[in-house]
Amino acid sequence: MSLLQYHLRFAAEFVPALMHYDDLWAQHLKHTDKRHIDGSRNHDYRAIPILNEIKAGKRELNAPEIIKYFPQYYISPTPREYVVPSGAYKYRVETSPMLSRLIAAALENPAAPLYLGSNDGWVEATWEVL
Q1: How confident is the model at residue 31 (pLDDT cuts 50, 70, 90)?
Q2: First vs last Cα of the chain: how many Å apart?
Q3: Is the pLDDT of residue 20 over 90?
Q4: What residue ranges do the domains of the chain occupy?
Q5: Residue 31, exposed/middle/buried by CB under 10 A (0-12, 13-18, 19+)?
Q6: How many C-alpha atoms does 29 have within 13 Å on its Cβ side?
């Protein structure tokens, strides 16, 4: 819950025209079952005889026994939507004069890069007092 929710009111917004597209990205996964063994492209040579026996039906898959011969993580291609705006998002925010000055000062000298929570969530923000 935002600490500022009772001190700000978003009165209007302008959302620019958006272009959407989907692309694949490499998601790192970790499991201790057949998904990990099937998902990994690489494994230690010592896993080959065990995998051959499993494939021939001479042996049941015992993931904890064989998982030690695989990397700790494997890569799975996963679709992700990207959004490319044609301009800036603009919002009219109603608040007190004091909080407006504090927000303006914080955006002029942020303690860290501004981030909206996704891998590509870095943003630039400005505050204009009307």
Answers
A1: confident
A2: 28
A3: yes
A4: 17-86
A5: middle
A6: 18
